[in-house]
Amino acid sequence: MAQKKMFRRAAETDTRDACATRRSPLDSCVHFFHYRNGKLHCEDVDLARVAQEFGTPLYVYSASTILDHYRRLDAALAPLDHLICYAAKANSNRAILKLLADAGAGFDIVSGGELFRVLKAGGDPAKCTFAGVGKSPEEMEYALDQRVYSFNVESEAELGYIGKIATAKKLRAPIALRVNPDVDPHTHEYTSTGLQENKFGIALEHAAAIYERAANMPNIDIVGVQMHIGSQITEAKPFADAIKKVVPLVRELKLKVGIKFFSIGGGLGIVYESSFASGAKEWWDSSTITSASKSALSIQQYVDAILPLLRDLKLRVLLEPGRLLVGNAGVLLTGVRYIKQTGQKKFAIVDAGMNDLIRPALYHSYHEIIPVEEGRVVALRRLPPCRTARRPYQLSKSTRKSKNTNKTMEKIDIVGPVCESGDFFAIDREMPEVREGDLLAIMSAGAYGFVMASNYNSRPLPAEVLVSGDKFSLIRERQTYQDLVRGEVSVDRPLRGRC
Q: Is residue 361 one of the residues assigned to a domain?
C-alpha cells in the first residue's frame, strides 16, 4: 500500500507549509499529536492504523514536530550568527538525521558510530562537533579524515592524543575545550554535566593554561570554546549563569587567538507531565498552566534569557539541542496483554518493556500514557507463536465499548513483561479504566527511547515509523528471533587453554 512507501518530498513540503500556516514560528506548541473523532492521530495519520500495519511495541515519530521545533529555534536565534547542531545521541535513526540535515542542521556527535550515521544520512561533517570524554584513537583518526568542524576536548590527556594523531597524519585538528563552569542545572543527577563533580569538561580556572598549551602545539587549531551543563533543564537561569561565567574566557580567546565560535551546548527540557495537553498553544498561556507544569520553559523564554549575553560577542554561536527537537515528537505504542489484580494493586501488563524504553526505570521519569482511542478501546489479537517475534500483536477488525467513555478513573501500574521489578512505565497512575487488548500511547518518547533500547531478556528491538502529513513510512524493521543471534559465532570444538 502507498503508506508503506517512503513519502515523497512533495508531500513533505506540503506538510511543512501547512505547519507554517498553523502558527507563527515562535509560538510554543509542542507537538502534532491530537484526537480526531475520538482517535489519536500523529499529524493526519490514525495511530491505530499504524499499529495495525506494523504491530506493537512501536515507536512513531512526527516529522512536522521535529521540523517545527528546529525552525522555531532557528528563527528565535536570527539576531545571532548561529548553527544548530542536533545532538544525535537523542535519536539517531538515519531518517531523523536526514530530515534535520536537509533542513540545514549540523550535528553534535559523541562517537565514531554517530559520525558514520550522520554521513550515511547525508549530513555535512564540516557541520559536526565531536564531543565525548573517551574518544578512541581510531575515532579521532576517522573524524580527522572526515574533516569535522571541531573536536570538543574534555581533558588535557585527550588534547595530547589529538595532537599526536594530527601530526602523524599531517593534518590540522580544530579544537574547542569543553569548559566546566560549575553551575548547578537543577536537573536529575544523572543528566547533570556542568558541576566540578561531574566527569565532563575542564574546570574553568584551568582552561586558559590548557589553551596556552594548545596554542603551542604544531597541528592544533584553536577554533572555539564549548560548554554544556546538563539535560532536561526547565528554567532559564542556569543557562544564563553558565554563559556569564564563561564569557570572559571567550572574549580573551577571541582577542588572543581569533576563535570562531562559542558553543553553549544544549539541555533545554521538554514537557513530560502534561505532554498531550501542551500540544495546544492555549496550554502555554500563563493563566492555564497548572502548578505541576510551571517549570515548562518555551523556546522563546530560553532565547530571551541568553540572547543579551551573546549578541555583543560578535562570534558564531553553536547550540546542541537533542531532546528539545525530538522528545515530544515521538510516542511508543504498546498493547495491553493482561490485567492482573494482586491484593490492593492492579497491574496492566503491556507488550513494551524497560528494554524498549528504559527512562522510567533508569531515571524514575514520568511519561504521560493515553489511550489511542478516546472513549473506545482498540482490541488487539494475538498472532500465532511462530510470528510473535516479528509482530507480537495486531489490531483486530472489531472494537469494543469501554468505560473510558464515562471517564472512569482508577489507580493502576503500567508494567512490562521483562523479568525485573523495575520494569514499569507508571506506578499508581490515575487513568481511565484499562482493559486487556487496549492500545496505549506512551508520550514524549522521541528522545532517549529507541537509542537506549536493548535486547535484554532476548527481546527483539521494536520497529520505528516516521509520519509526515497523511503519509507514514517504516524507518526501522522490527527485529526477529534470528536477528538476536546474528553475529554470534558457534564454537564447534571444546575450548582449550594452557595449563
A: no
Could you report the per-residue pLDDT of 63-96, keeping only the tens digit for each?
Answer: 999 999 999 999 999 999 999 999 999 999 999 9
- Strand pairing partners for 5? none
Taking the C-alpha atoms of residue 257 and residue 169, their distance in angstroms, rounded to an integer, is 24
Which residues are tagged catalytic?
419
Q: Is 245 part of any domain? A: yes
- Please, which pLDDT band fits residue 3 given cuts at 50, 70 and 90? very low
| The amino acid at 114 | E
Residue with cell 502548578: 291
Return the closest-CA partner of residue 336 out of 253, 219, 441, 420.
441
Domain count, the chain: 1
Helix, strand or coil for residue 244?
A: helix
CATH for 147: 3.20.20.10
Decide if 81 is inside a domain. Answer: yes
Task: Summarize pLDDT for 165-200 with one digit per residue, the tens.
Answer: 999 999 999 999 999 887 765 554 544 443 455 656
Q: Which domain holds residue 272?
A: 65-323
Q: Are 379 and 398 in contact (CB under 8 A)?
A: yes
Pair 42, 319: CB distance under 8 Å: no
User: Rg of the chain's alpha carbons, rounded to an integer?
Assistant: 24
Q: How far from 224 is each of 15, 129, 295, 338, CA to CA, in Å? A: 37, 11, 32, 55
Q: How far is it, in rounded angstroms, from Cα 124 to Cα 138?
A: 20
Query: Any residues with CB less than 8 A from the CB of 383 and at least 6 apart, and which?
Result: 391, 392, 393, 394
Whole-model pTM?
A: 0.86
Q: Residues 337, 352: contact at Cβ < 8 Å?
A: no
In a domain, 480, yes or no: no
* Beta strand segments in 361-435, E: 369-371, 376-382, 393-401, 409-415, 424-432
Residue 259's nearest CA partner among 202, 319, 314 is 314
- The answer to whether 70 touches 103, Cβ cutoff 8 Å, is yes
